[in-house]
Every structure is written in C-alpha cells, then in structure tokens.
Amino acid sequence: MATYRTYKPRLRIDFNYSCGYCKANEPEIGGAKNSFQIDHYQPKKEFPELINNYENLIYACRACNQYKGDYWPTPFESLLQKIILNPRVDNLEKHIDLRNFEWMAKTLRGKWNILKLRLASEPHITRRKDRAKIQQMIKKLLDKIPTFQKEILDLETKGDILNCQKLRQEYEEHLEDINTLKRKIEGPME
C-alpha cells in the first residue's frame, strides 16, 4: 500500500506545480523540496482512515499548510461558513475574486479563507505583482516573434546570408529570454 508521501510527484503535476490554496508556483517560492508539502484536506488526526487517500491530499506551500494546520470545522463553524475551500472540489473563483493582486472575497466562505490562510498578505500580493510583470514582459517578447520571422524570411529571400545568420542568432537569444522568464514563474522547480 502506498503512503501519502509517495504521491508528492503526482500531486505536483496534478496541481500544476503550484499551491492548491494560494496558487503560488514552485519557482516563485523556492522549489518543491523545501517550500511545498502535502496537506491532508481532512486532517489526519480526525480522519486517520483518509491518511493515504489521494483525493484527500492537496499540494500546498509551506505557509498555507501551516496556516491551515489541522483545522476542521465544527458544525457551528460550518454554519458560519468557516470552511477551508477544497481545491479539488470547490471553484475558488466562486468565492474569491482573483483578478486583482489583493484577492477580494465574493462570499463569506471566501472571506474566511482569505483571513485564515492569509491569502491577501503582503508576500502574496508582491508575488502576484511580480508574476504579472513577468507575464507582461513575456507577452512583449512574444509579440516580437512575427517581426523576427518576417525579417529573417525577407533576408533569406534577398540572399543576405550574413545578416540572416545574425538575425537568427538574435532570434534564438530572444526565445531563450522568453524561456528564462517563464522558468521564474511556471513549471517544476526542484
């Protein structure tokens, strides 16, 4: 029987290398090894039978996992909507407006999650702003690709091999710049 720790590689992929709660990506907060953990949505203490149940496991950053801890709502807390959103089941955008850097609640449950998990904290806001800046830089670089391609084709048509080679080199460097920026905000990071 597999233990929950063996699921971490699969969880990383299923959660797109980001925290199920705050959506921070691995490269943004230091990688998978030290910055991400496996959270038991239904805590191990109260639900020991679910300790190795894959559907109960959430890929979470260290901060969110710490803030959530072993929380599980009492019946009274459930009535007050003090329920952690389950990234596997709940539509986050139904409860929280994600369009701005400082996430805003749409529902009582969303408001409580923002407070409990500190989703509108300064580090989260700064990270989202940084991500947006990098995404804008990537977009600007991507927008230049058709111009590069057209100029290379024009030089090839004219038979200007020397300038064509220079432009191809510049184009390759341009693509590498895009990939370098993407690695800062996307995908796996050990």
From TrEMBL:
Residues 19-70 form the HNH domain. Keywords: Coiled coil, Endonuclease, Hydrolase, Nuclease. It comes from the Bacteria. The keyword Transport does not apply. CDD domains: HNHc. The keyword Hydrolase applies. GO terms for molecular function: endonuclease activity; nucleic acid binding; zinc ion binding. InterPro entries: HNH (IPR002711), HNH_nuc (IPR003615). Residues 138-184 form a coiled coil. Gene3D superfamilies: 1.10.30.50. This is HNH endonuclease. It comes from Fluoribacter dumoffii. The lineage of its organism: Bacteria, Pseudomonadati, Pseudomonadota, Gammaproteobacteria, Legionellales.
